[in-house]
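Hello,

Our lab assistant flagged a job as stuck in the queue for most of the afternoon. It eventually completed. Since we weren't sure the result was trustworthy after the delay, we are filing this so someone can double-check. Below is the sequence as submitted and the structure that was eventually returned. Let us know if re-running is recommended.
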Amino acid sequence: TKATPWKRREKLYLAGGAFGIVLWGLTSDPLTALITSLAVIECALVPTLEGVWNDPEAEPPIPWLLGGLASVPVLVSLDHWTLANALQPILWMTNNVIVVLLILWRRRAS
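-- returned structure --
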């Protein structure tokens, strides 16, 4: 696959991730950095969802499914549930399931 130049929004997502690191350094609060970084990840998921919507055959569902399932043992093994501990694996699992369902739904519709 030929690499394409970065789009403006992709640069914004990268800047958002860097902003999360800066916030972490300024506030010394890892939860602030985590939430900022996860918000950026959610924004960065949008191009993937658009790509799946437009060409569902381009994305294989199995890696996304495995990525979502990988969060299950993380969640099961948490001995102390806090937002900081659970938010990232829950979000990854949810994102991956959404992508898998969108791939399957769009493939079935075409």
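-- support follow-up --
The delay was a queue issue, not a problem with the job. The result is valid. The two ends are 23 Å apart (CA to CA). The chain has five helices and no strands.
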